[in-house]
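Good morning C.,

I know you're traveling, so I'll keep this short. The sequence:
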Amino acid sequence: MNSIKYKSLELFIIFILVPISYAISYSPWVKLSVGLVGFLYVIYILLKVENLKFKVSKHLGWKAFWKATIIKLIFIAIITTLFVWITDSESLFSVLLNEPIKWFILLFIYSFFSVYPQELIYRTFFFKRYHSLFKNEVLFIFVNAILFSLAHLFFGSVLVIVLTFLGGLLFAYTFKKTQSTLLVSIEHGIYGCWLLTVGMGSMLGFPV
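The tokens, ready to paste straight into the viewer:
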């Protein structure tokens, strides 16, 4: 399971073949089953093969993390607010203003049932499992971001692919710097929740 050939095939199936297959129309139950089996496989590899221990480090750089995240959020907020205002002004903060309870529920479900599994697979698992396959650190982060955007191919939107690629770069860099699934999940959750709040939720698959 730790040979280069095995890892390369594993990477291809999990991060290329499955995401591309999700963009094809077939039974949603089969897609759900494939996703569940894949997620359980990732957990198994992390625990039994990579011997990863799920625990929160006592030495996380919270102050530096929050400073960097808030600065990036301000920049993202300005750009996305202008974008929604120009392209679809009726959607600007519409869920927050018109359906605050629905907005809160969506944020909760997204943060705990979507963000963490994504980061566990695309950062924790990917970095732990495939870092040795890449000698160039920049290329490794770039590939990670490309594959993260590929996971959103089923949305059928070039804008979503671009946004998730940029997000993938940010999250990959954060994980490389912090080595923390918790911190990168918090960052991912903050940016994703903002996109829903500002009015870009429908584009990203939120039921709004």
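Safe travels,
E.
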